[in-house]
Task: inverse folding
């Protein structure tokens, strides 16, 4: 597999020029520490760690974890890399300063997580899941719980997980059977089984802190009866270290399609001692803090798959000789031309690049709301940011992960038969990328969340805010403004304006059709999510185009980098964005084509 090089210049372009994160950092507590020099230094050092420590272990990790009577051993090199990771202080970047963290904005951590995922997906999940546990305790934990757990979680000495689903219920958490019985000392005895627990058991940390959903004896039926608990593998000792072993054991690890280097565990809770987080029966609300953090991380995994696959495929396409270019010989000294001279190969490479750069921009844009939600200076600002992030989250998670699989598939295709062979590493990226469309809620679940909760229940408020930003941005460049911008920028701005209008129209139309037949929502939701994703990405590429053009006109920045940005954006608008026409058309199709046949049809 070719070496991975972190595109630091792309992250800096997004943070400093496109999103102007510095102006946003001034509006949050602790943001003044994230100066441009600090951010650049952090990204540069993170890149070195990813390239030198994590990337070389990517294919080694595919050997998988080993389970032996409840003990899980990670692949060779994983533990050593993790030790270096915590010694360098990477786990503490965004943690609360009072608890040992550095207090930097969450958006910086989101970017570094993407770098690490691109370098070594399975490894990056271990510290990634811990961040969700930290966010949940910061938001919903008691002061004593924060004192007991956050210092070790923030330092990385302990790790965290999220334990939701069970063998019989999948995403339908209302069917959950795990029970929590109150003890006289205020703790709870928890009994049940959880499956698909990423990083659920491993040898990287001294302790693993499980964030677990369970039902109290008086729980009402359905999801309204779920409560949230802290269940550590080892109960904290008086001095803060890992003490007595708790009643949680790893029954097995899953044999998976990909991410073999991560210990995806089946966990048995046998009178495990747990501690309630938040209020009884309100666990799902508290868990959504964890879920939103996890979904942002999962969305960036789609961009990571595209980036890693693109880098490998682009290098191979420049070197691999096969056939002659149909427009004329390009390599007269050789027996054939490089396959990068073939238009279809370039189409696949450009599609990968669009997904990587566009997805990264989408995640960066949303991460500003994570910053404000976590460190906004007023309750009003935090609530507004939570709503903005809530709208973006299902789009990010559903759309970018689907496109990440597409990009990884293109990587295999560019290599041809060699892409199907393990030694090249391209098929591993494809296998790894497939899980991202499943965990933290499948694409269909994300689509229902977007349409049901973030569109209809919200009465279009967030959709109108988002499209309002699109109108405001595009309005600067429309022809009648007579602004001194290139024809390409004005064309993209006009396309963006029409797209925003159509996005609103499709939302309102779907709401009207839902009143006639609720199944219209389920039948159209994924198409609406994908349309939303392309519209969101178009907004990002239009902004990147405008900034790149402005800097080129002023003679600033890296000329080649900026010209490449313009070309990537042009490819997106010309070759990728037209996909929205199909999604818009399909959304309006008759519900009978989906639900009109009897169940026996599927026998």
Result:
């Amino acid at each position: 597999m070719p070496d991975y090089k972190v595109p630091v210049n792309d992250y800096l372009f997004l943070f400093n020029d496109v999103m102007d994160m510095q102006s946003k950092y001034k509006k949050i507590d602790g943001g003044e520490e994230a100066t441009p020099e600090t951010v650049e230094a952090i990204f540069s050092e993170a890149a070195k760690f990813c390239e030198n420590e994590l990337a070389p272990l990517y294919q080694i990790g595919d050997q998988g974890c080993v389970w032996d009577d409840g003990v899980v051993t990670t692949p060779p090199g994983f533990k050593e890399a993790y030790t270096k990771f915590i010694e360098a202080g990477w786990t503490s970047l965004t943690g609360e300063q009072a608890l040992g963290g550095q207090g930097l904005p969450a958006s910086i951590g989101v970017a570094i997580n993407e770098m690490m995922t691109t370098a070594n997906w399975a490894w990056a999940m271990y510290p990634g899941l811990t961040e969700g546990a930290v966010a949940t305790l910061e938001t919903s934990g008691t002061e004593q719980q924060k004192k007991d757990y956050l210092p070790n979680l923030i330092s990385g000495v302990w790790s965290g997980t999220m334990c939701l689903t069970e063998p019989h219920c999948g995403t339908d958490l209302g069917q959950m059977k795990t029970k929590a019985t109150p003890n006289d000392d205020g703790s709870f005895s928890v009994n049940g089984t959880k499956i698909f627990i990423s990083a659920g058991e491993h040898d990287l940390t001294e302790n693993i802190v499980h964030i677990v959903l369970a039902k109290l004896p008086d729980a009402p039926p359905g999801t309204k009866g779920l409560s949230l608990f802290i269940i550590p593998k080892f109960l904290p000792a008086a001095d803060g270290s890992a003490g007595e072993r708790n009643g949680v054991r790893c029954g097995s690890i899953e044999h998976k399609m990909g991410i073999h280097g991560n210990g995806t565990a089946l966990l048995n809770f046998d009178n495990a001692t747990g501690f309630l987080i938040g209020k009884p029966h309100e666990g799902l609300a508290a868990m959504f803090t964890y879920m939103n953090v996890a979904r942002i991380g999962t969305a960036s995994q789609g961009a990571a798959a595209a980036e890693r696959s693109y880098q490998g495929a682009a290098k191979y396409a420049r070197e691999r000789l096969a056939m002659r270019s149909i427009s004329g010989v390009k390599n007269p000294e050789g027996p054939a031309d490089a396959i990068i001279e073939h238009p279809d190969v370039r189409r696949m490479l450009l599609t990968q690049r669009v997904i990587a750069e566009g997805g990264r921009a989408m995640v960066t844009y949303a991460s500003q709301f994570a910053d404000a939600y976590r460190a906004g200076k007023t309750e009003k600002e935090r609530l507004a940011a939570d709503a903005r992030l809530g709208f973006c989250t299902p789009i990010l998670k559903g759309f970018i992960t689907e496109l990440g699989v597409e990009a990884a598939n293109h990587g295999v295709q560019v290599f041809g038969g060699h892409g199907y062979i393990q030694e090249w590493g391209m098929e591993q990226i494809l296998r790894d990328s497939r899980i991202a469309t499943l965990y933290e809620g499948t694409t269909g679940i994300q689509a229902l969340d977007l349409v049901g909760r973030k569109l209809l229940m919200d009465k279009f408020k967030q959709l109108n805010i988002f499209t309002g930003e699109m109108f405001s941005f595009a309005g600067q460049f429309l022809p009648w403004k007579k602004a001194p911008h290139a024809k390409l920028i004005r064309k993209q701005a006009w396309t963006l304006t029409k797209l925003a209008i159509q996005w609103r129209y499709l939302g309102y139309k779907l709401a009207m059709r839902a009143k006639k037949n609720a199944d219209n929502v389920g039948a159209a939701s994924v198409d609406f999510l994908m349309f939303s994703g392309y519209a969101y990405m178009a907004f990002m590429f239009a902004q990147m185009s405008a900034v790149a053009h402005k800097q080129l006109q002023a003679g600033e920045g890296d000329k080649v980098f900026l010209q490449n940005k313009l070309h990537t954006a042009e490819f997106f608008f010309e070759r990728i964005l037209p996909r929205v026409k199909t999604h818009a058309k399909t959304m309006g199709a008759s519900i009978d084509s989906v639900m009109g046949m009897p169940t026996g049809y599927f026998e």
User: Anything to note?
Assistant: The longest strand covers residues 265-277. The chain has 19 helices and eleven strands. The first helix runs from residue 8 to 18.
